[in-house]
Amino acid sequence: MMKTINERLADLRALMREEGIMAFIFPSTDPHNSEYVAGHWKGREWISGFNGSAGTAVVTLESAALWTDSRYFISAAEQLADTEYELMRLRMLGTPTVEDWLVQQLAGYENPVVGVDGNVNAFAEVSEMMAELTKKASFTIRTDLDPLARIWRNRPAIPESPVCIHPLEYAGEPAADKIGRIRQRLAAYCTDGLLVTALDDIAWTLNLRGSDVHCNPVFVSYLLISPRSVTLYINKVKLSQEVEDYLASEQITVEPYEAVAEGLRKYDGDKLLIDPAATNYTLATAMDAEMVVYAASPIPAMKAVKNEAEVAGFRAAMIRDGVAMVKFLAWLKPAVEAGGQTELTLDERLTALRAEQPLFRGISFDTIVGYEAHGAIVHYEATPETDVPVEPRGLVLIDSGAQYADGTTDITRTIALGDLTDEQRKVYTLVLKGHIQLDRCKFPVGACGSQIDAMAREAMWRDGYNYMHGTGHGVGSYLNVHEGPHQIRMEWRPAPIVAGMTVTDEPGIYLEGKFGVRIENTLLAVPYRTTEFGSFLGFETLTLAPIDTAPIVMEMLTPEEREWLNVYHRRVFETLSPHLTEMEREWLREATKAI
């Protein structure tokens, strides 16, 4: 019989008492600081019951709390309701930091010991926490214990899914050339090697893909680039003879996954670059400190700029994805009016239509189908327990995407299924205005996403609305749907947007208990023009699917916003219609007619 969360907490506390630990911190990550993790490392979810992708659980001998961001406030409150956990809403007034909370909770202890598993906590985060705690009180931080190894019965194994070769026609650059460019970048840091820990960075560098993490085509491994060699640390059972031969042809040595720490201790170069934000504490401290340079890995910025083959793959994938979206949208309203549809059946229908498309490899994240009030839960995912009927009225928000062998897609559409309130129409139009203004934005080379974020929010700010999530993130090339280092968001993110980068445009407004609206396309940063004031960039819209015009309050749109929508819809029709049946083509003609 499966234990309750409170029973798991009791087991944990028994172990903590045995080990002399007064608090233990559980992050959302794995040894590779991944956003989405394999089941083996979903420890925070196992100990708390909260299944969002971001959050930190902290357990003391007498209390428990969980920190998460605004995307999960509603769902976290529901999932923690019958547990000991107190929900801590990040970036909200009055919410203490983890360190401040621990100081308060452990005030009665002399020299309290706080545990963190050094294998799944990034070096930078552990170091910062150590500095904060020791500054506030006399704390001891212990990093050598994984309590889950002793109390999590039937814990999922580390995945062993097979690795496959990502064809050069889609990758656009041989692995040897990428490694050569990486080595050139390392010289700027006065280093001659790099430990690559991020799974998507490894997959991109080697032109390999896997399926160890749900929706993310990556494989559990480490990559050590040394002055004279490159070593992949991986469970060899994952490698077919074809992949072994490929790695040998690229002069890449293969060693067991668990041998990476020993490989670091035997490093034969002068200086090794370790990314403190991406490398776990245990590995980051495995070799002599004087041989380490702590700095950001150059790979994310390299990977984010797509080459010609990757851009061509995105464009091709977007056409196939757009065809699936049109087939779904043409089916949607008649099916809802006929009755019997729920959030889950809509999800299943859309996934099935995508699966019919060539080069489909799976979904790029779990589909969000939020009808009416569920649309206000930013990362809502319907389950058999939460699933509700979808009726021919109100709004349904659908955020979805797919993995194709030549590209990754991410699209949100909010659709009117029947009668709407004036409030729904107004909110929808404000979101659309923000979406259009960001898409139309022109900005100087060197600008970052934080400097253009207000373009998406200005119209809604005037009416007193806002949203707490980011406006845009990079998208991988048949890789993770979330990719950095660039972002578009209110918080300061200095990484510039560079020509060749993909980024989403997804403003939204969410009214708890009522409805939510989000409209999202994936964009490509492209050169715009050069003047006496320098070079400027703009965006090319990659996503191809109609935006529902039924909820729009037309008088709220400016002439330029109407023109943008008409031009976009004309392109959607001209590009997708040759791939549709006559009935679907006529539906699309009506859906994209000029306003």
Describe the protein.
Helix content is 34%, strand content 20%. The chain has 19 helices and 28 strands. The protein has 3 domains: 5-151, Creatinase/prolidase N-terminal domain (Creatine Amidinohydrolase, Chain A, domain 1), CATH 3.40.350; 164-299, 3-Layer(aba) Sandwich (Creatine Amidinohydrolase, Chain A, domain 1); 308-555, Creatinase/methionine aminopeptidase superfamily (Creatine Amidinohydrolase, Alpha-Beta Complex), CATH 3.90.230.10. The chain is α+β, with helices and mostly antiparallel strands. Helix 14 (308-338) crosses helix 15 (343-355) and helix 16 runs antiparallel to helix 17. The chain starts with a helix and ends with a helix.
Record field, number of beta strands: 28
Determine and state the CATH class of the largest domain.
Alpha Beta
Shape-level CATH architecture of the largest domain: Alpha-Beta Complex
Q: How many structurally independent domains?
A: 3
DSSP strand (E) fraction?
15-25%
Overall outline: globular
Structural class: alpha+beta
> What's the arrangement of strands in the largest beta sheet?
4-3-2-1-5-6
Number of helical regions? 19
CATH superfamily caption of the largest domain: Creatinase/methionine aminopeptidase superfamily
Helix proportion = 25-40%
Give the uncertain stretches in residue-range form. none
Largest sheet: 6 strands, mixed
Determine the N-to-C terminus distance: 59 Å
Rg:
25 Å
Output the CATH topology of the largest domain.
Creatine Amidinohydrolase
